Amino acid sequence: MKAHMVKALNMALYQEMERDESIVVLGEDVGVNGGVFRVTEGLYEKFGRRRVMDTPLSEAGIIGFSIGMATTGLRPIAEIQFQGFDYNAYHHIQQHASKIRNRTRGMMHCPMIVRLPYSGGIRALEHHSDSLETIYIHLPGIIVVCPSSPYEAKGLLAACARAEDPVMFFEPKRLYRAFKEEVPEERYEIELGKANVVKKGGDVTLISWGAMTYLCKMAVEELEKKGIDVEHIDLRTLHPCDWETVVQSVKKTGRCVVVHEAVKTLGFGAEIATRIMEKAFYYLEAPIKRVTAWDINIPLPALEDYYFPDKERIIKGVEEVMKEG
Amino acid sequence: MKKRVFEGGVDYVQILDKDGKVDEELEPKIAGDTLKKMYYHMVLQRKWDRKNMALQRTGRIFTYAPCEGQEGVQIGAMMATEAQDWIFPTYRESYLYHLRGVPLWKINLTWRGMEDGLKLDPKLRMWPAAIPIGTQLPYGAGAGYTIKMRGEKAAVLVFGGDGATSEGEFHDALNFSGVFETPCVFLISNNGWAISTPRKIQTKAETIAQKALAYGFQGLQVDGNDILAVYKYVKEALERARSGKGPFLIEAITYRMGPHTTADDPKRYRSEEEVAYWRERDPIERFKKYLYRKNLLNEEEEKKIEEETQKIVEEEVKKMEEFKPDPKDIFKYQYGGKFALTKNLEEQMKECFGE
To answer: What is the ipTM of this complex?
Structure first.
């Protein structure tokens, strides 16, 4: 069926809850209201309030409660209404969710998913538009996933529902209803830890995830017309990252552009560039280019377009790299 | 119109006073063997605790958080649990794993700086002790929800200190537990001090127990150095929880006789008079008098327990020192499943061990 990302995620949640009785969905307004973005719509009616919990308004409480559930036999899928509000729960992820498997030497683990509507592009209020994937990628023991389309969202969420460790699931909210695509009604999984080569090419490697993959696809089409043959990689799982696919591609093309919505300084692009330097330095024909948000606090919505990378900046970035060497 | 919309109060209970005299009206009926087992564990815990202080001073374990003075609340509460109950201890309750069969030498591996001490079979239903203050509180609340979802007849005993009640986690845990009616007993060992910060700086409230009222359930204050009161009321609260009546908060008034940890010097912030006052209220001494009066203990048996526990502690230290961790384990348990040892980690492991 043709579905947008909200519907795809909703289908995945529904199917996973049917498949596995230990899954409990919880968060602010996820029950009766079906979630502020409607991702959990209909779940409350189908599975009841014990498995679809409207919680008190506390991000730290939701995540703390989830860790207790996950380490004693349930599989919570928590929604943090906006990723910008997850900081007051971060210590639970950092101090315990990420460490419980190692500190018990594998005796206990924490199979939970935290769904995080993230980044901008929907003209939301102040504090609603952060892209903080890096702070979770910085934690060993955590899986970080970011889908780029409805098809990807459903398959990745299904895979996460069977993962053995805590997953931070970044949902690019500007893609929630941006477009529809064919999404199988039956259950399927997209393998975690495996990047997707969206388009093969020989001239330059373009790396992105989430909403930036959507923009990059449009940029790639225009670059094609200009005669630049781009190899476009959608990372899907940011942590642990599929470095093999990245390195193989850059060894082939000799050029690389990374695109992300987070700030440039210590954004994940910094790590990607360094990994390429370590593994494929002598294959490079040009410096690696990062097309990112600027190193400033996110402007309020009236001026946010100046902040996020857009198609034009991506095209310009790729052209710059092509001119080098 | 003006009307009173809330009424509430908090009781304080002591059954065994500092001289070992019992309030017969409140005295719980406990089997003789159970009373003797309580005494045995309190004696062994204190011996082990003092040994650990010495082990730290001689560099055989790292930083240690002593529990002297808090044996009454810890042993009393733990013995009030049943095997199906989940326990969420803090670092100061590490002895309690022994009551579910974990040998002392293994518990001590953690203090010796090895994760192997926390390699606990989940069937024990004990979470690894939480070091960050108060974090275990909402996890205990969540564990209560698991019990509820599965329809188990079990409860959760969640430990915490007076300092932890200032953390947001205390609020989250009691609030979620109240709203979702999870079978949790929150036991706050109010030992007077959070390192150098006295209890009165943690909250303006008269008692910690009264905070339960604001979350929609009951709180009780007990003499934490009175093992009979702790045992009786924790047991009652756990039974209530198991039968679906929701959470309960118990504030146990006790005292940390030693430093916060081996890295702390309590002489900087509290008086010798205060320590002496609490020495007279020792949980073991008063319980011993009670057992003598009940003819459950005599000098000969007391001496036998002294010698036996001393011997155990020495033997456990030897076993602890014999244990060698596998350094490669530091890489092996970051993830499970397909990420168990990623290519990235495998490369780093080889580099670390020079392979």
So the answer is: 0.97
| Phi, psi (rounded to 5 degrees) for B338 | -70, -20
- Token pair, residue A141, equals 């023991």
Contact B49, B67 (CB under 8 A): yes
Per-residue pLDDT of A204-220, as tens digits, reads: 999 999 999 999 999 99
Nearest CA in chain B to A49: B180
CA-to-CA distance for B162 and B199, rounded, in angstroms? 7
Question: Is pLDDT above 80 for A325?
Answer: no
Contacts of B176 in chain A (CB under 8 A): 55-56, 58, 61, 64-65
Q: From the candidates A25, A77, A107, A189, which should be mutated to test the interface with B, based on the most B CB atoms within 10 A? A: A107
Q: What is the least distance, in Å, from the CA of B69 to any CA of chain A?
A: 28
* Residue A165, pLDDT above cutoff 90: yes
**At B222, which helix (H) or strand (E)?**
strand B219-223
Residue A171's DSSP bridge partners are A117
Q: What angle do CA B347, B353, B355 make, to 5 degrees?
A: 65
Instruction: List all residues of chain B from 332 to 351 with a beta carbon under 8 Å from chain A.
Output: 332-339, 342-344
Q: Strand, helix or coil at B18?
A: coil
Q: Name the residues of B annotated as catalytic.
A: 256, 260, 269
Contact B336 A106 (CB under 8 A): yes
Provide the pairing of β-strand A237-239 with A143-145: antiparallel
Nearest residue of A to residue B130, measured between CA atoms? A96
A101–B contact, CB cutoff 8 A = yes
Q: What are phi and psi of B186, to 5 degrees?
A: -90, 120
User: What is d(CA A252, CA A244) in angstroms, rounded to the nearest whole number?
Assistant: 12
Q: Where in chain A is the domain with CATH 3.40.50.920?
A: 196-323
Residues of chain A with CATH 3.40.50.970: 2-182
Q: What is the pLDDT of residue A126?
A: 87
Question: In this complex, how many residue pairs, one in chain A and one in chain B, have their CB atoms less than 8 Å apart?
Answer: 152
Which DSSP state fits B259? -
- Can you say how many angstroms the Cα of residue A49 is from the centroid of all Cα atoms in its chain? 28
**Facing residue for B336 by CB, picked from A53, A88, A164:** A164
The CATH number fitting domain B11-324, selected from 3.30.1300.10, 3.40.50.720, 3.40.50.970, 3.40.50.150: 3.40.50.970
Whether residues A65 and B142 touch (CB distance < 8 A) is answered with yes
pLDDT at A128: 87
Residue B142 and residue A60: Cβ atoms within 8 Å?
A: no
| Option in B127, B135, B176 nearest A61 (CB) | B176
CATH level 2 (architecture), domain A196-323: 3-Layer(aba) Sandwich (3.40)
The amino acid present at A164, given as its one-letter code, is E
**Catalytic option among A4, A109, A128, A232:** A128
Nearest to A240 among B86, B139, B344 (CB): B344
Query: For B181, which residue in chain A has the nearest alpha carbon?
Result: A50
Could you please state the CATH topology (level 3) that the domain comprising A2-182 is classified under: Rossmann fold (3.40.50)
pLDDT at A130: 87
Q: Report the gap between the CA of A84 and the closest CA in chain B (Å).
A: 19
Per-residue pLDDT of chain B (355 residues; tens, 9 = 90+): 999 999 999 999 999 999 999 999 999 999 999 999 999 999 999 999 999 999 999 999 999 999 999 999 999 999 999 999 999 999 999 999 999 999 999 999 999 999 999 999 999 999 999 999 999 999 999 999 999 999 999 999 999 999 999 999 999 999 999 999 999 999 999 999 999 999 999 999 999 999 999 999 999 999 999 999 999 999 999 999 999 999 999 999 999 999 999 999 999 999 999 999 999 999 999 999 999 999 999 999 999 999 999 999 999 999 999 999 999 999 999 999 999 999 999 999 999 999 8
For residue A141, which residues of chain B lie inside 8 Å, CB to CB?
334-335
Closest to A4 (Cα-Cα) out of A211, A209, A153: A153
